[in-house]
Amino acid sequence: MHIVHRHSVDRAERLETDGGRAPAGWTALARGALAGMAAGLAMTALLLALREVLGLPTPSEMVGDRLTAFITIQQFFALLNQFGGYEGLKQAGGGGVIAGQLAVGVLAGVAYAGYARSSQRPWLFALAVVGLLWLLTVAFLWPNLSTNYRGLPPDYARIATLTSLLVAYSTYGLVLVVASRFVRTRVTNAEHTQTRPGRRAFLLGGVGAILAVATGGLLRQLAQVATFAYDGMEYRGEDVQPITPNDRFYTVTKNIVDPDPTTAVWRLEVGGLVDHPTTYTFDQIRALPRTTQETTLMCISNYLGGGLMSNAVWTGLPLRDLIMAAGPRPGIAKVVLHGADGYTDTYPLDKALEPTTFVAYEMNGEPLPVRHGYPVRILTPGLFGEKSVKWVTRIELVDHDVQGFYEQQGWGPNFVIPIRTTFFAGDFDTPFTPGGRIPIRGNAFAGNHGVGSVEVSVDGGQTWQAARIDYPGTNITWAFWTFDWQPSAPGDYLLVARAKNRQGQLQDSQYRDTAPEGATGYPGVNVRVTG
Ligand SMILES: Nc1nc2c(c(=O)[nH]1)N[C@H]1C(S)=C(S)[C@@H](COP(=O)(O)O)O[C@H]1N2
Ligand SMILES: [Mo]
């Protein structure tokens, strides 16, 4: 009985090898592809679930961040053009990496199937593939592993990411081995040799389809909270107010999905070259002596007349309070600010110790909105918004030069905000009434030097008249102005504005584009006065 049974197993194997496998090696490889796809989907679904629940960064996001540092501003702009803006680029990039991930999964599945045909221990091959892919990923993404969207500080975040990638890749390997066995399993009954593996492949396809649906669902859920809805949002128009309401404050983020820190794991570390490295909880930060500070932020990408600029009253404490408490050692060159999203920026220690460089946790009397850096962000008056790191988790004092996220791409190296003026209205038509006045309004900003005066020209810059300052602001905020223009006759006019800072320095008239150090030049509007 036993011998007969053994005999039929041999027959079945021979049948499969001769009749099923050898001539149709393609079938084996196709099953490998199927198993690889199922394993890739299982891994992708797991990565997305870990992202959603624990804020662990996905390879998609880290690859995007890694490449941002590699490419030049020109290449970056070309990509923006090609993909219809930042939003399109983020979607294509994120989707592309997931597609690539699945493609690698399928290819590795095929390779595994090929290997399994001649090997007794195919799982060794899977183990090697998983280990190799993990090492390659880790080597390539090393600078970005310290991302954690729930707010774990960098060193812990890196360990968490290394672990999650290992778990995800191992899941791939395990599912690949199990699924491949499943579709290859030899059946003892010779008659069924041809049909059963086919049915099993069909079953595995079903499991794959379920995993694909789950992956799609997780992606949709993440897409719902993605930054597409608000990234690049400007604050502009005729109703612009000196203090920007929180929900209209301009927004710029490098992320596809912004961090959503929880104060249970979020910490703010002050470390590096200090005598007393310190880790603060959110409650501990809020218990420190607090002040309020009105501060205007502006993005380096703010084109002339653009609205990537806003102003709020922030509550928090000077950054120097935290740095001095930690006991900085001699020889510090730079302060590096780490965000939960793996974003970093940096400036010299002197800048960090200026009394207005700020650690903020309230914005216009409310907790920081998530998109503006909850629970804690940095404000760096005088320098472009890039240096005002959101979702900050670590402040590190180092003895060497370091470049920030956008600086690596070629922005800067000078991030000092030049004097800027903006008209609230764009080009417009207005009826001519003899003796009538047309109020022309706008704002001006001079980084951390305050706006001293604003002038307007109605003849394209030949002659200038003083505008009235309605809202003077402070040294670190914008100012609002009005020019009551009384045109003497109908016609086409080019109105131009310029400002001086409180040190009497005049705005640069030379036009300069936003890249790489921010736009300069006088803004103009065309006004047609109709008779
Ligand atoms: N952690 C982190 N901080 C960041 C960014 C980011 O992507 N991640 N973007 C920077 C840029 S480019 C700008 S202009 C400001 C925008 O701040 P806001 O969105 O609160 O206006 O945040 C800066 N801080
Ligand atoms: Mo920015």
Task: Please tag this protein with its features.
single chain; 531 residues; alpha+beta; five-stranded mixed sheet; 19 strands; disordered N terminus; binds the ligand Nc1nc2c(c(=O)[nH]1)N[C@H]1C(S)=C(S)[C@@H](COP(=O)(O)O)O[C@H]1N2; binds molybdenum atom
Q: Could you walk me through the main structural features you see in this protein, from its secondary elements to its overall organization?
A:
The protein has 531 residues and is of the alpha+beta class. It has helices spanning 2-21, 25-54, 59-70, 73-82, 86-116, 122-141, 154-184, 195-224, 282-287, 319-326, 349-353; strands spanning 268-272, 278-280, 291-298, 309-318, 334-339, 344-348, 358-363, 366-367, 377-379, 392-398, 420-423, 428-431, 438-445, 451-457, 465-466, 468-471, 479-485, 491-501, 524-530. α2 (25-54) runs parallel beside α8, α5 runs antiparallel to α6 and α6 (122-141) packs antiparallel against α7 (154-184). The radius of gyration is 30 Å and the shape is elongated. The protein binds ligand MTE and molybdenum atom (MO). The site of ligand MTE has 19 residues, from loops. Residues 249-255, 297, 299, 339, 341, 343, 372, 385-386, 388-391 line the site of the ligand Nc1nc2c(c(=O)[nH]1)N[C@H]1C(S)=C(S)[C@@H](COP(=O)(O)O)O[C@H]1N2.
